[in-house]
Amino acid sequence: MLKTMSFSSRMPLFARFMCRNIFEESIAPCRFRKYSTKTERVSRGMFSIGLTGITVGALVGTGYSIHYMNKPRGHIINEETTIPIFQDIPKIEPSKSVKILGDRSGLDLTLFQYQTCPFCCKVRAFLDYYGISYDIVEVDPVLRQSIKWSPYKKVPILVAKTDQGYQPMNDSTMIISALATYLTDTNKDIPDITKCFPSITFIDDDGVKRNEIMNRYFLMLSNQSSQLVDEKYSNEERKWRKWADNVLVHTLSPNVYRTTDEALQAFNWFSEIGEWERNFPTWERYLIIYVGAAAMWLIGKRLKKRHGLKDDVRQSLYDECNTWTRAITAKGTPYMGGDKPNLADLAVYGVLSSIEGCRTFKDILENTKIQRWYNSMQKAVTHHHGARFV
Ligand SMILES: N[C@@H](CCC(=O)N[C@@H](CS)C(=O)NCC(=O)O)C(=O)O
Questions:
Q1: Which fold has domain 249-389?
Q2: Would you say 133 and 140 are in contact if contact means Cβ atoms under 8 Å apart?
Q3: Nearest to 327 by CA among 206, 262, 243
Q4: Exactly one of 117, 196, 321, 358 is catalytic; which is it?
Q5: What does the alpha-carbon distance between residue 140 and residue 145 come to, in Å, rounded to a whole number?
Q6: 270 catalytic, yes or no?
Q7: Of 148, 219, 220, 284, which is most buried with the most CB atoms under 10 A?
Q8: Left (φ > 0), alpha (ψ -120 to 50) or beta: where does 332 sit?
Q9: 3-state class (DSSP) for residue 157
Q10: Does the Cβ of 320 fall within 6 Å of ligand 1?
Q11: Which of 112, 119, 217, 374 is catalytic?
Q12: Any ligand 1 atom below 6 A from CB of 173
């Protein structure tokens, strides 16, 4: 039973449990005294042992309770960190270079990624749409050697080579907001912008220490540039970017890894599209495919429960796709951003593109009305339609 309880609820119960044990042991001699023929002196001694037991038990229990009550929960602890610039990072041969003719961004970028991670796909959708060139380092999802230099242990990590050194940017949403700020506010450089996205460390309701970039959905524009942005329009854009990260993305894993067959098919496709045959030794590739598929099949079941998906997980995904297309239809424009995609369109497209080769994706196209929007997005991204705004 203890196993099924959260850590936070275990401590006081454990304390009470201890107290009860000590208490039960201490009253046993009292009961014994009532029916025994031993001398009163002996029973008084036993009674005082019992009493001491109760007192010690009560003190230990109280101590635990006070410790538990004082344990910080849901508080921001006083740690605000900006991502430092590295003077050097290990030279790692890129797995691929995406060079876009006529790129006027002035950026020199390397993306550390998993090819089919939805968060990495979001970043690539942004870079491709705006016609920004970048190198790719495909990270081995099991061993992750190529990001050993980074204190941040997830992907995507986007590193910008600047005059001041190598500036890493962590978290897909922060990366996109930082780059969108850079494209809108031409007076700021990447290290300046990165400083505007500090991560705050806090203890959440379960007592777990977390880092979060609180303003990651915002562009950090100067007063002058922010006047160009329509407030109502950017509220809506933020709302759907959050939906892509907090709702849509959680419907993917339970679908893609719904059965062992589907999980294996998905991992084989990841291997193909991520060029694992070229990027990793054979043993490492098979390790990732088989261990990864088995692990994700199991994890998919847990995620289904955690995110409250329907028993038929496909239906949950169809529902979300329909929510998105209905919202665009209600606007009467081809994209959420109107006549051209905005950051919400790019985020939703990026997330869905991560499962393009999976059976789930075919099912979405056949059972929802998302295909028209998806095809237009695909064209806009692969033909770099946003490059004219750079
Ligand atoms: N909030 C982050 C989430 C990134 C994330 O969870 N990435 C996963 C891959 S899809 C990861 O790197 N997990 C750690 C691991 O693989 O060990 C973002 O938007 O970039």
A1: Glutathione S-transferase Yfyf (Class Pi); Chain A, domain 2 (1.20.1050)
A2: no
A3: 243
A4: 117
A5: 7
A6: no
A7: 219
A8: left
A9: strand
A10: no
A11: 119
A12: yes
119 CA → ligand 1 middle, Å: 7
Count Cβ neighbours within 10 Å for each residue of 323-341 and write b for 16 or more, e otherwise. ebbeebeeeeebbbbeeeb
The CA 147 to ligand 1 mean position distance, Å, reads: 13
Provide φ and ψ at 324, rounded to 5°: -65, -50
Would the pTM of this model clear 0.85, i.e. be above it?
no
- For residue 61, the CA-to-ligand 1 centroid distance in Å is 40
Dist CA 285 CA 47 (whole Å):
68
- Per-residue pLDDT at 222: 84
Is the distance from the beta carbon of residue 177 to the nearest atom of ligand 1 less than 6 Å? no
∠ CA 354-356-361, nearest 5°, is: 110
Taking the C-alpha atoms of residue 277 and residue 15, their distance in angstroms, rounded to an integer, is 54
State if residue 257 touches ligand 1 by the CB under 6 angstroms criterion.
no
Mutate to test the pocket of ligand 1, among 155, 158, 212 (most ligand atoms within 8 A of CB): 155
Residue of 154, 210, 348 to test ligand 1 pocket, by largest number of atoms within 8 Å of CB: 154
Mutate which of 112, 116, 119 for ligand 1? The one with the most ligand atoms within 8 Å of its CB, which is 119
pLDDT digits (tens, 9 = 90+) for 249-284: 999 999 999 999 999 999 999 999 988 898 889 998
User: Average of pLDDT values for 336-364?
Assistant: 97
Residue 68 falls in the annotated catalytic set: no
Which ranges of 108-171 would DSSP assign to H, the alpha helix? 118-129
Kindly give the pairing relationship between strand 109-113 and strand 134-138.
parallel
User: What are the beta bridge partners of residue 134?
Assistant: 98
Cα of 161 from ligand 1 centre, angstroms: 22
32 included as an active-site residue: no
d(C-alpha 386, C-alpha 381), whole Å: 8
Residue 383: pLDDT over 50? yes
Placement of tokens 């942004």 in the chain: 126
Write down the domain spans for the chain: 2-71, 81-229, 249-389
* Residue pLDDT, tens place only, 1-51: 333 333 333 322 222 222 223 222 232 323 323 333 444 444 445 555 555
Is 17 catalytic? The answer is no
Which 3-state string (H, E, C) describes 257-296? Answer: CCCHHHHHHHHHHHHHHCCHHHHCCHHHHHHHHHHHHHHH
